[in-house]
């Protein structure tokens, strides 16, 4: 046990009234500071100087969320700062401390935004601090937040007197799959403990002082994006955050005025504070004392409460979604396999006989890393055999695709590709900590049993690192790959009488419902028809429920009686009609987790696509982040629709509106990443040159430039029926 009592010689032991007074005095200091910096900026830059954070459609998110003020220039800010100051009442009560906290959120948002008015990238020279976290990253978190892959978020404030205990806290959060946001001295302390930080590994080093506001900025935008909460609906947003966003603050060290008022801002949003400083009296479930550093995270989990799905796997490195974005460069790798360098494949085989699978068995054929040189390129086969009474052939590919995720959850593990096109690396650091190839088997057994326990009773894994031995198993794997492809190719909407709902995102967007058919996956890109079918078997009362589609009301627009009835039920009566094959007439709803947005460009008589990674301007004169604010939140928005990438080359891509040949523009990165699929769809439609007729930002940035490009290329959309 490591206790704060062993590290602090004196304590203030604050009363509640003293805490409230500090929150109020801190708000006076914070708003005065914001006012001073704002006046300086207006004097030098002028009141018409634009002010905005990068990559967001929500101006200054705190001002956007908690007031009706629009902010586009410095001249718009005095009203917002004045409003913040009006919230401060100098009587030390709990309610006034909360309002002071809200005022401080405004002030901090203004101070941070002013940094971007002076310098478009003010954190470029403050590495590893990253400052404001853009909408793109928040949306990437979306599906993981709603399915509890990321069960909660921890904000770390202050300076911990026991750096080793701090490291244990961070690893504990990572092993539980939590998003971590570090501020103040915590950032440097974490780095000194050799813990990597960065957006890609869900440990955000926000910065010092007012940079802590960027944690709240993420929270409020989650509510706006995924919950569809309009500008200035303060109480709706507070209720949403209290109910749906499992965030908490861990405070280390003395309570100064600024930290205290900022923490009451967090409480205003519904996020509790767990402090290592004793309090004369706690604010129940909101401001509590926990001196045992090894119990701080657990105390937060109990208070919030947070349901942690990740279970202990028993490997020598941390494991969880925090590491899914981790990359391992060549200089950092201990070994690699596949990636055109060596033969490698992965396969899941269903076994009919339970005796053919010994649960928990992991067999390694060939050398492990103790016998392999650093920097080696090796052959690798991962063969997973499963047995279960409810297991079906169709579920093999569903499980197999998760190998990618399970490998990437491993700190120091990296995986890309699938089937016999995989590429795997392990880092030198992870191998030094004891990670071995055989642990892949342990990971697969634990996670497959955990995630698919409803259909799988036994799992055994064979790993091969010898090419001659591996060659014995590859032909059978290829036969299975081909058989799956043939089966999937015949899986059409017309061939089934059951679609599936996905209401996973209703925890964020209560009236949103995805309807998943064989030819249209969920808009998050993560769940297809077979995934939903498997999910129903695993969790019979879960988010994926079968829809008997019933009578077809419109085969062109894709409307079925049974789908409408289910949508009415699942949207609590907010939506009464769904048309699956059009974006113009009662299109499906969208939440904030979509991979892409498709939308009409009237001048071109066609459809543009913009993916969430693209931060530039579209020919429609609107960026993804702004567009997403209108399309998400469970709304039906005729002319616009959130979709998964794979839907773009589906045969059921908006056929009622002209289909695939309506595509006129998409970002180059998206077009390049889908090139093989898009070209195949072009071939299927006997228009092999159509791929080159789809413009990117390199061809057109405005509707006028787009129309010129399409005319020059002879794009078919220009001669198709008008969309409206």
Structural class given helices, strands, pairing?
alpha/beta
| CATH architecture descriptor name of the largest domain | 3-Layer(aba) Sandwich
Overall mean confidence score, pLDDT: 92
User: What is the radius of gyration?
Assistant: 27 Å
Number of helices: 22
* Shape estimate: globular
Can you count the beta strands? 23
Low-confidence stretches: none
Largest beta sheet: what is the strand line-up?
3-2-1-4-5-6
Largest sheet: 6 strands, parallel
Strand fraction band? 5-15%
Number of domains: 3
Main CATH class of the largest domain: Alpha Beta
CATH topology-level name of the largest domain: Rossmann fold
Distance between the termini: 68 Å
Overview of the molecule:
This protein has 724 residues and is α/β, with parallel strands linked by helices. The chain has three domains: 4-303, Rossmann fold (3-Layer(aba) Sandwich); 321-486, 2-Layer Sandwich (Bifunctional carbon monoxide dehydrogenase/acetyl-coa synthase(codh/acs), Chain M, domain 3); 493-719, 3-Layer(aba) Sandwich (Bifunctional carbon monoxide dehydrogenase/acetyl-coa synthase(codh/acs), Chain M, domain 5). It has 22 helices and 23 strands. The protein has a six-stranded parallel sheet with strand order 3-2-1-4-5-6, with helices on both faces. Strands 10-7-13-12 form a four-stranded mixed sheet. Strands 8-11-14-9 form a four-stranded mixed sheet. Helix 1 (16-45) packs across helix 10, helix 6 (163-175) packs across helix 7 (186-192) and helix 12 (395-408) packs across helix 14.
């Amino acid at each position: 046990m490591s206790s704060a009592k062993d590290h602090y010689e004196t304590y203030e032991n604050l009363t509640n009234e003293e805490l409230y007074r500090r929150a109020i005095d801190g708000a006076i200091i914070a708003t005065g500071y914001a006012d001073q910096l704002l006046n300086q900026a207006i004097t030098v830059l002028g009141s018409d100087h634009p002010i905005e954070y990068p990559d967001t459609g929500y101006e200054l998110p705190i001002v956007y969320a908690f007031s009706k003020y629009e902010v586009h220039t410095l001249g718009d800010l005095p009203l917002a700062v004045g409003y913040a100051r009006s919230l401060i009442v100098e009587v030390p009560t709990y309610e006034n401390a909360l309002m002071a906290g809200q005022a401080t959120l405004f002030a901090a948002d203004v101070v941070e935004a002013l940094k971007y008015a002076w310098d478009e990238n003010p954190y470029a020279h403050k590495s590893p601090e990253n400052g404001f976290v853009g909408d793109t990253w928040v949306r990437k978190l979306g599906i993981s937040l709603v399915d509890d892959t990321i069960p909660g978020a921890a904000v770390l404030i202050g300076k911990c007197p026991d750096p080793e205990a701090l490291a244990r806290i961070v690893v504990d959060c990572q092993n539980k799959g939590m998003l971590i946001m570090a501020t103040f001295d915590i950032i440097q302390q974490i780095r000194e403990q050799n813990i990597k930080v960065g957006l890609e590994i869900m440990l955000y080093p926000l910065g010092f002082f007012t940079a802590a506001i960027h944690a709240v900025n993420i929270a409020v935008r989650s509510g706006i994006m995924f919950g569809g909460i309009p500008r200035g609906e303060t109480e709706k947003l507070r209720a949403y955050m209290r109910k749906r966003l499992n965030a908490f603050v861990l405070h280390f060290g003395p309570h100064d005025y600024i930290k205290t008022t900022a923490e009451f801002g967090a409480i205003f949003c519904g996020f509790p504070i767990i402090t290592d400083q004793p309090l004369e009296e706690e604010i129940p479930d909101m401001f509590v004392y926990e001196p045992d550093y090894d119990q701080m995270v657990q105390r937060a989990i109990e208070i919030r409460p947070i349901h942690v799905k990740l279970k202990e796997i028993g490997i020598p490195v941390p494991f969880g979604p925090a590491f899914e974005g981790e990359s391992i460069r060549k200089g950092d790798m201990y070994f690699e396999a596949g990636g055109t360098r060596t033969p490698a494949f992965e396969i899941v085989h269903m076994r009919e006989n339970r005796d053919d699978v010994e649960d928990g068995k992991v067999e390694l054929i060939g050398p492990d890393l103790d016998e392999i040189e650093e920097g080696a390129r090796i052959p690798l086969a991962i063969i997973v055999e499963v047995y279960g009474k409810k297991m079906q052939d169709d579920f093999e590919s569903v499980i197999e695709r998760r190998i990618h995720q399970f490998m990437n959850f491993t700190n120091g593990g990296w995986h890309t590709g699938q089937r016999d096109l995989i590429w795997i690396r392990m880092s030198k650091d992870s191998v030094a900590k004891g990670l071995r190839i055989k642990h892949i088997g342990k990971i697969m057994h634990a996670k497959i049993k955990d995630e698919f326990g409803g259909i799988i009773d036994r799992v055994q894994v064979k790993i091969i690192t010898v090419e001659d031995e591996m060659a014995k198993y590859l032909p059978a794997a290829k036969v299975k790959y081909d058989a799956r492809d043939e089966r999937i190719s015949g899986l059409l909407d017309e061939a089934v009488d059951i679609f599936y709902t996905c209401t996973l995102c209703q925890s964020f967007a209560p009236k949103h419902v995805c309807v998943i058919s064989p030819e249209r996956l969920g808009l998050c890109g993560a769940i297809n028809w077979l995934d939903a079918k498997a999910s129903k078997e695993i969790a019979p009362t879960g988010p994926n429920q079968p829809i008997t589609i019933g009578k077809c009301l419109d085969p062109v627009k894709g409307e079925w009686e049974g789908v409408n009835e289910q949508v009415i039920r699942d949207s609590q009566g907010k939506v009464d009609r769904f048309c699956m094959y059009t974006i113009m007439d009662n299109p499906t709803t969208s939440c904030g987790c979509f991979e892409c947005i498709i939308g009409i460009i009237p001048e071109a008589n066609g459809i543009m696509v913009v993916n969430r990674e693209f931060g530039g301007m579209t020919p429609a004169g609107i960026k993804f982040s702004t567009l997403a604010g209108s399309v998400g939140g469970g709304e039906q928005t005729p002319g616009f629709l959130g979709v998964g990438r794979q839907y773009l080359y589906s045969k059921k891509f908006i056929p009622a509106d002209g289909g695939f040949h309506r595509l006129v523009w998409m970002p180059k990165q998206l077009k390049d990443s889908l090139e093989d699929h898009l070209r195949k769809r072009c071939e299927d439609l006997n228009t092999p040159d159509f791929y080159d007729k789809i413009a990117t930002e390199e061809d057109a940035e405005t509707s006028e430039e787009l129309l010129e490009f399409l005319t020059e290329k002879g794009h078919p959309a220009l001669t198709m029926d008008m969309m409206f």
